[in-house]
């Protein structure tokens, strides 16, 4: 009689212990794999393989400088210099083009840069008439910078 009680007791303890063990093991949080760390590192998503491996941001600064030069030189009546700066503005714009994935923005930026150049090259540039195009160009450049920053270079 005593023996069977001991056996029962041992059984009971074993059951309780295995339940506890089961509990504690199920409480352990499953080790989770760090998610979505790879996504940020890919960059240049959707860019064509033909895209130059260069940072277009310094080009945006160059573009901004050329535009400021155009305005300054037109106001000062330095037509020759203004024409040179306008040509520089368009060539810098062309360098940024391959980095742009937004076709509408790309076309607008290029079109506006060329309009400024044509206006300056016509030789009879009215600074106030140029002002509207310059404002449009500045706005497009701002959008372009934001667009370019959305991709990693
Ligand atoms: Cu790019």
What report would you give on this structure?
Residues 1-21 form the signal peptide. Residues 30-41 have a biased composition (Low complexity). This is Lipoprotein. It comes from Sporomusa silvacetica DSM 10669. Residues 30-59 are annotated as: Disordered. This protein is mainly α. The protein has a domain at 57-149: Four Helix Bundle (Hemerythrin (Met), subunit A) (Up-down Bundle). Helix content is 72%, strand content 0%. The protein contains six helices and no strands. It has helices at 2-27, 38-42, 57-75, 79-96, 103-121, 127-149. The longest helix is centred in the N-terminal third of the chain and has 26 residues, at 2-27. Residues 33-44 have low confidence and may be disordered. Bound molecules: copper (II) ion.
Q: What does the main sheet amount to?
A: none
The quaternary organization reads as: single chain
Q: What is the CATH architecture descriptor of the domain at 57-149?
A: Up-down Bundle
Count of extended strands: 0
Q: Structural class of the helices, strands and pairings?
A: mainly alpha
Detail the poorly predicted runs.
Answer: 33-44
**Approximate helicity band:** over 70%
Present as ligands are: copper (II) ion
Specify Rg, calculated over alpha carbons.
34 Å
Organism: Sporomusa silvacetica DSM 10669
Biased composition (Low complexity): 30-41
Keywords: Signal
Region (Disordered): 30-59
